[in-house]
């Protein structure tokens, strides 16, 4: 399936069942229900939350670099975990197309070469995943969304990002402009691999990384802040890592 | 426009909240994993396959949080974590080796509603494909299926290093019956007299030991990134539509 084969309407995105995306879950251990033995521990449960914690006996932690660039609840990693919800779409740049649809239904389209011709920038940013990992000073290359929106007039304040494979993510338009977001084509000095969202993914580093939709194929202006894929499954509508906006 | 309608949207499910968990019991699950029984008096229950954030706090306020899949399909005051130790990990070695009855930690959840199985949602058969400790959420779906009034046939293909590494061996054996079948693939060492070759899962074995695409199974795959990438690709080559394949992976931290 390629974007070029359909009519460029919003409905073409809607036909794709959402199954893919940057997966929020790091699966390394599991819980199994057991029979309630009826025991009571008298544990105080009031006011438990981000503002109140207790020490777990014996836990000191290992990585305690006091890096002020690490948002709360995040752990620094050097590698790049792969997380998604379904098979990885394989999209050839020859077939790739990006469509930006404004509220009049007008499509602005770019082929791979046309996108790159807009001008590719090098950016170094920190990446924060909702699954608690953070990478600092990650090198990316991509095209600023300011370039894409240069000729787009819109009264709508929100954008739905659409991916090959059907994944969606909702974002406020202002979070995509003024040098805050890119269509990224390279990371760590190499073209983006399919499992990391290649050939191109959205890059919005100031929000949790699920907002940086992999396999980006389209941006649709919308009047309301409708929920995208993971947002419909309980993830936060906005996703500010500094406020720990992980879930609603 | 909005995103495609999803079957789970608008479902009432427990809202995520912070909970205090108290360790009731720990025991060895495999040579690298421990099973922790936690008492969580406020736990609202969760769907099989959803997850939870675990937070540990040091006396100086330092905190470490990790997301872990939960398997719990009914409201219970107890959950059991089966934690596989990551050799370079910060949280999992602590959970595996240091937790003792009476210790407390914080949970935030239940979280997630995508990699889940719900009784009665579909009468299509379900194929589960597990790599290593990725079996656990899939086992949980099978266990939930085993206690539910749901006739959809279940089949689990479980790739595991050695017999000792099998999670929930007794429970899986007990589930096996007309509605659930288990296929084991040993990658390093098999029991004496095991009829099949020992080695990594192949496309041929996957094809032979899973429900064919013609039966239109819903497929859940969980394991390492390499395992999931490979299996998901093979499944598509074998005719399963991408929309039928749900995946969950180990993270890289």
Automatic annotation (TrEMBL), chain B:
Keywords: 2Fe-2S, Iron, Iron-sulfur, Metal-binding. Residues 16-117 form the FAD-binding FR-type domain. Its cofactor is FAD. InterPro entries: Cbr1-like_FAD-bd_dom (IPR008333), FAD-bd_FR_type (IPR017927), FNR_nucleotide-bd (IPR039261), MRET (IPR050415), OxRdtase_FAD/NAD-bd (IPR001433), Riboflavin_synthase-like_b-brl (IPR017938). PANTHER family: NADH OXIDOREDUCTASE HCR, PROTEIN RFBI. This is Ferredoxin-NADP reductase. It comes from Promicromonospora iranensis.
């Amino acid at each position: 399936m390629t974007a070029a084969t359909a009519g460029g309407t919003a409905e073409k995105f809607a036909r794709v069942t959402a199954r893919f995306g940057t997966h929020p879950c790091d699966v390394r251990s599991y819980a199994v229900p057991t029979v309630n033995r009826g025991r009571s521990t008298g544990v105080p449960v009031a006011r438990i939350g981000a503002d109140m914690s207790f020490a777990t006996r014996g836990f000191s932690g290992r990585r305690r670099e006091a890096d002020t660039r690490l948002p709360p609840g995040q752990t620094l990693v050097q590698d790049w975990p792969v997380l998604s919800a379904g098979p990885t779409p394989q999209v050839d740049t020859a077939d790739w197309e990006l469509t930006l649809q404004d509220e009049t239904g007008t499509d602005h389209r770019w082929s791979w070469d046309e996108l790159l011709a807009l001008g590719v920038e090098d950016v170094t940013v920190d990446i924060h995943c909702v699954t608690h990992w953070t990478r600092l000073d990650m090198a990316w290359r991509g095209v600023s969304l300011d370039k894409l929106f240069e000729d787009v007039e819109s009264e709508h304040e929100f954008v739905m990002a659409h991916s090959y494979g059907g994944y969606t993510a909702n974002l406020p338009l202002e979070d995509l402009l003024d040098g805050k977001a890119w269509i990224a084509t390279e990371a760590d000095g190499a073209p983006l691999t399919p499992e990391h969202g290649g050939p191109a993914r959205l890059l919005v580093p100031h929000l949790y990384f699920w907002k940086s939709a992999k396999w980006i194929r389209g941006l649709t202006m919308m009047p309301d802040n409708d929920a995208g894929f993971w947002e419909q499954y309980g993830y936060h509508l906005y996703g500010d890592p500094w406020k720990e906006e992980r879930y609603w | 426009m909005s995103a495609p309608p999803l079957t789970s949207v608008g479902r009432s499910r427990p809202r995520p909240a912070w909970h205090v968990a108290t360790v009731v019991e720990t025991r060895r699950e495999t040579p690298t994993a421990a099973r922790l029984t936690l008492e969580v008096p406020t736990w609202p229950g969760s769907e099989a396959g959803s997850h939870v954030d675990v937070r540990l706090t040091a006396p100086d306020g330092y905190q470490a949080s990790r997301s872990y899949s939960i398997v719990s399909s009914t409201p219970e005051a107890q959950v059991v974590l089966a934690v596989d130790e990551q050799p370079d990990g910060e949280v999992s070695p602590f959970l595996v080796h240091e937790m003792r009855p009476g210790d407390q930690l914080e949970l935030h959840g239940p979280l997630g509603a995508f990699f889940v199985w719900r009784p009665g949602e579909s009468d299509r058969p379900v194929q589960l494909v597990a790599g290593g400790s990725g079996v656990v959420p899939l086992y949980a779906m099978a266990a939930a299926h085993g206690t539910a009034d749901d006739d959809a046939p279940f089949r689990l293909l479980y790739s595991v290093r050695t017999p000792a590494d099998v999670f929930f061996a007794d429970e899986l054996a007990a589930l096996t019956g007309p509605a659930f079948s288990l296929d084991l693939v040993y990658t390093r060492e098999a029991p004496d007299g095991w009829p099949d070759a020992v080695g990594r899962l192949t496309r041929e074995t996957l094809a032979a030991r899973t429900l064919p695409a013609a039966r239109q199974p819903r497929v859940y795959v969980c394991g390492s990134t390499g395992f999931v990438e490979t299996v998901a690709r093979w499944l598509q080559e074998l005719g399963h539509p991408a929309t039928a394949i749900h995946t969950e992976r180990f993270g890289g931290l």
